[in-house]
Amino acid sequence: MRIVLLGAPGAGKGTQSQRLVERLGIPQISTGDLLRSAVARGTELGRQAREAMEGGRLVDDSLVLGMIRERLGDRDARRGFILDGFPRNLAQAHALERLLEQLRQPLDAVVQLEVDYRELVRRISGRRTCADCGRVFNLLTSPPSASALCPKTGAPHRLVQRPDDNEATVAERLRVYDEKTRPLVDFYRARSLLRVIDAQADVDEVTRRLFQALGIRTARRARPAKAARRSPRAAARKVVARKGAARRKAASRRAAPRRKPARAASRTSRAKPRARVPQRPRRKR
Ligand code: AP5
Fold first, then answer.
1. Which positions are catalytic?
2. Ligand 1 binding pocket mutation candidate from 39, 141, 184 (most atoms within 8 A of CB)
3. What's 213's DSSP letter?
4. Is the pLDDT of residue 251 over 90?
5. In the structure, what pLDDT confidence band is assigned to residue 277 with cuts at 50, 70 and 90?
6. What is the pTM for the complete model shown?
7. 169: which of 22, 38, 56, 138 fits an S-S bond (Cβ 3.0–4.6 Å)?
8. Which residues sit with their C-beta closer than 6 Å to ligand 1?
9. Burial of 61 (0-12, 13-18, 19+ CB in 10 A)
């Protein structure tokens, strides 16, 4: 599947992308993660992107498009991908459309995750990331458990806050989202690709809604027996009745007096039961 996840900063695009990766086995392509990695490695791209990111503005389209073109050409993206944080404006959306036409890989769906402003700010203020493995937590909704260890270091996770998760930058990111990214909702609706889900619920529930919107079946449960599938109540009654009968049989076996083993009866005697001989009344002495 080729999917775009749209939504404001903090809507849960990264979190839900991870669930899709686990379920579908296709890569998550997050422009935010690619840019942060370039900044951390001190590459030329990172150097050019850094200032815009720290200010909560969008990085130049030409830089982002170059990065996306390269990433979509990678082998693992041929089976499908989840775009997280891209496209971010109409120019990027048009460029993506052209690129996917060239690659003959049209999008299957675009999902908009809707969350209200207060909840977005709450989620972003609680977000912490492990500096070593990159796993995302939330101090308010999903803190790491006391026993959780980082798979990279084997020690407890080292939690850090993203530099652009401060109050001033978050306000600017949300403003930029409304101005530049929200218009993509109409862009994709006009192409009949848009699905909107209410993403203001716990993570598992949002995943359920997302999978439903994409027509992805959730993990299979064990199939009940045939009779239970037809009528679960009737099947349950049948089990109770069967158990009751077994109990009664066992009780009557316990209560019955022990009989001597009967002598083998001849066929004729079985066929014709012997008539009972009336006993003579005892004579009184
Ligand atoms: P980017 O990294 O894309 O950030 P963003 O779009 O602002 O999105 P976030 O990563 O903040 O939020 P998210 O929706 O992924 O939420 P998450 O799952 O983490 O971009 C950063 C910067 O890079 C941009 O500002 C820009 O400068 C630049 N950039 C990136 N792409 C660009 C592009 N295409 N063009 C130009 N510039 C670009 O969840 C947030 C928190 O909430 C977490 O703590 C999580 O645990 C928690 N949470 C998630 N779901 C739930 C839930 N259902 N209930 C409770 N808590 C939840």
1. 13, 88, 127, 162, 173
2. 141
3. H
4. no
5. low
6. 0.79
7. 56
8. 7, 9-15, 31-32, 35, 52-53, 56-59, 64, 85-86, 88, 92, 123-124, 126-127, 136-138, 141-142, 164, 173, 202-203, 206
9. middle
Contact 3, 83 (CB under 8 A): yes
User: Taking each helix axis from N to C terminus, what angle separates 44-55 and 31-41, rounded to the nearest 10 degrees?
Assistant: 120
CA separation, residue 267 to residues 206, 271, 272, 274 (Å): 76, 6, 9, 12
Record the tokens describing residue 197, joined without a space.
Answer: 């889900």
Residue pointed to by tokens 């296709």: 26
Task: Note the pLDDT tens digit of each residue in 228-245.
Answer: 555 556 656 666 677 777
3-class secondary structure, 114: strand
Q: State in Å: Cα 151 to ligand 1 middle.
A: 23
CA distances from 183 to 87, 89, 120 (A): 11, 8, 19
Testing ligand 1's pocket by substitution, the residue of 123, 137, 175, 210 carrying the most ligand atoms inside 8 A of its CB is: 123
Residue 262 has pLDDT above 50, yes or no: no
| 138 half-sphere exposure, CB direction, 13 A CA radius | 18
Q: State the amino acid at position 211 in one-letter form.
A: F
